[in-house]
Amino acid sequence: MSNNEVRVEPTPRRVFQIHLSYDKFKQLGTTIAQENTLLQKWEQHSQGMSFPDFVDGVFKLPCDDCVMVEWQGIWLGIEKDGYSHT
């Protein structure tokens, strides 16, 4: 595991939350690493939203494999390997 990778335990709650947003993830073509990072960021600060509502705000850049989401007042980019940056 590299320094950028975060081990995410597949608890039933996590699997359920990701399952709720399966259609959106399929539409975007996200990687498992991106999905895990989105869930991790939502768990850190949900902004008063459910996970599916949070994921509804995710979009993919047309020229890149990076997905973008507004989180805590900033735009967060999440790369294919799950690495997140502003």
List the helices and strands and how they pair.
Layout: H1 12-20, H2 22-28, H3 32-44, H4 51-56, E1 59-60, E2 67-71, E3 74-78, E4 84-85
Antiparallel strand pairs: 1-2, 2-3, 3-4
Descriptive account of the structure:
This protein is an alpha+beta fold and 86 residues long. The longest helix has 13 residues, at 32-44. It is globular, with a radius of gyration of 12 Å. The chain has a four-stranded antiparallel sheet. The relative contact order is 0.19. It has helices at residues 12-20, 22-28, 32-44, 51-56, and strands at residues 59-60, 67-71, 74-78, 84-85. It contains four helices and four strands; from the N terminus they run H-H-H-H-E-E-E-E. Residues 1-6 have low confidence and may be disordered.
- Low-confidence region ranges: 1-6
Strand content: 15-25%
Ends distance? 23 Å
Radius of gyration: 12 Å
Number of helices: 4
Mean pLDDT figure: 84
Shape: globular
Structural class: alpha+beta
